[in-house]
Specification:
alpha+beta, about 25% strand
Length: about 200
């Protein structure tokens, strides 16, 4: 997951390609006029995959400033700044909380969040013992970029080529690119609340 260690302008495309594989659709002719560049890139990229890149939250159709909608949270770009020429406007949560993140970096976070929280292959254990969190951490590498400490520095992102994990005192959330990747955590005696292999 080297494309996530230092989040760069091409990190979104590189991560999506690594996690989901090559696109299975041709480029679509989308009307993205007036949409900030980073968000236009998301829509172009997502249109090339049959499998939705956003499944936990809804990525809203291009148009207004609100672009990513969850059950209790939503995210918009700063429409005023964009209207005044900002190419990469700041993201605002629930119409009032300034995140401090430009849209380009936030969309990388959103792609990783979606891969981890709506996976085909994954493990979840909520309210884990500290020993369980440590046992999972030592099998992964913490992602370096400061983005991965947002919004709560006590909950960090980890990964490698085949795994992503969001780990903190209240959660162990693990996603694998394939089923076999989860075998790394077998034998830890963690009572998983959800194990995709049991479905």
């Amino acid at each position: 997951m080297y494309e996530l260690d230092v989040v760069a302008p091409d990190s979104l495309g590189r991560f999506v390609y690594r996690w989901y594989g090559p696109p299975d659709r041709p480029p679509a002719d989308l009307d993205l006029s007036g949409v900030p560049g980073p968000l236009a890139e998301w829509h172009r990229l997502a249109s090339r995959y049959t499998y939705p890149l956003s499944r936990d939250h809804a990525m809203l159709p291009p148009g207004g400033p609100r672009f990513w909608q969850g059950a209790t949270d939503w995210y918009s770009y700063d429409a005023e700044a964009h209207a005044n020429g900002a190419l990469d406007p700041e993201v605002i949560e629930n119409d009032e909380l300034h995140t401090g993140l430009p849209l380009s970096r936030f969309l990388v976070y959103a792609a990783v969040y979606e891969a981890a929280y709506a996976p085909l292959h994954g493990l979840v254990h909520m309210d884990p013992a500290p020993t369980a969190v440590r046992a999972v951490k030592v099998r992964l590498r913490e992602l370096d970029d400061g983005l991965w400490q947002w919004p709560d520095p006590s909950v960090r992102w980890f990964g490698d080529d085949d795994l992503l994990a969001h780990l903190g005192p209240d959660r162990i959330v693990i996603a694998g690119r394939h089923r076999d990747a989860l075998g790394r955590f077998d034998g830890l005696a963690i009572p998983w609340d959800w194990d995709s292999r049991m479905l």
